[in-house]
Amino acid sequence: MSGWRETLERFLATDPRDVGCDEAMAVLHLYAELQAAGVDAAGQYPGVAAHLAGCEACAEDARGLLAAVQEDDR
Fold this sequence. Notes:
- By secondary structure, this protein is mostly helical.
- The chain has five helices and no strands.
- The chain has one domain (16-73).
- Helix 4 packs across helix 5.
- The model has no long low-confidence stretch (mean pLDDT 91).
């Protein structure tokens, strides 16, 4: 698949609930705290969950933040 087609396919496959990087980062600390507490963070922040499913960079940040929160709780 050529570059522009791959970009178009990714764009068309984007979940319409995806809030984007900026909004996800604004509440990522809350999302991680909910996850660490065993609460359904995706249920409370479905747009963030949709974004993390499609953005590997933000998902990596979320994993790191969750690990830090869990470590802090110990």
